[in-house]
Amino acid sequence: MPLSSRVPDLAALDLLLSVIELGSLGRAARAHDISQPSASSRIRYLEQLVGMPVLARSTLGSRPTPAGALIAEWARAVVDAAQQLDAGIDTLRAERDSRLRVAASQTVAEYLFPGWLMMLRATAPDTAVALDAGNSAEVAEAVLERKAAIGFVETPQRFRGLESRVVGRDRLVVVVPREHRWARAGSVSLHDVAETPMIQRERGSGTRQWFEHAVVRRIPDWQPEVALELSSTTAIKTAVASGVGPAVLSSLAVAAEIAAGTLVSPTVTGLELARTLRAVWPTGQRPTGPARDLFAIAQRTS
Predict the structure, then answer these.
(1) Sign of the CA dihedral with 107 first, then 195, 229, and 138 last
(2) Rounded to whole angstroms, how far apart are CA atoms 248 and 287?
(3) Segment 32-47, tens digit of pLDDT
(4) CATH architecture of 10-95
(5) Does residue 82 sit in helix, strand or coil?
(6) Which of 275, 294, 287 is nearest to 162 (CA)?
(7) pLDDT at 91 > cutoff 70
(8) pTM, two decimal places
(9) Of 31, 90, 113, 248, which sees the most CB atoms within 10 A?
(10) Measured distance CA(244)–CA(16) in Å, rounded
């Protein structure tokens, strides 16, 4: 049942006990790190609630009245119980903060998360971190089912039951082997890309969704043709280099291959492939503890 409005709050009761223990309102105020006027205000509030004085003040200090001594006796058990509750909550927080499970899309997991983890280790060295990598749909499911405290996705889709915030930006690029005609030309038209069967990630992949969403915005009746569907970015890069067909991948994922010349990224005229990377968590439940720290690191560094 609800507490009566006549029950004093813990801060006033705790202050009363300190005044009795220390013998002075001023010393009690310093012990609670509040001003003496604030301490006096709390005692007046307490006296108004009980309807009688609880302290007798003099030049020698403060001592409890008979009513104040009785209230203090009852209050001690209440304050002790509150301190036990506080200690228990601290224990639960410490247990929560000792481990963190994260779900992340493959691009984030492979190319961004390792750097984030190094920074998190500097602020939370005792936190054991587990990472589940998958496509964006799998990440969203893991967070919704509370299997992960926070997730990172790369899809334009918004998921019901999840809040999201942008933590970074990325660009998708078309990649082909260096012998491909698009590589020799240096550029390719949107319609040429749209008419070519592509090597794609599986359905649910954020990379695939961003690419298809971008093309449909320019060609509303476009129907994608898939030359090969693979669930691994590494497998897609190998297939492209082997001449199976072109693919669209994150610029983060192919930076090394483009620098080495094993893959080439021609300019696609008429197609915008910039995208956002987002952190997700259950609606109404902001990240806490190491999940909050990881989110801040992702926003700051990406």
Answers:
(1) positive
(2) 32
(3) 999 988 888 988 988 8
(4) Orthogonal Bundle (1.10)
(5) helix
(6) 287
(7) no
(8) 0.67
(9) 248
(10) 79
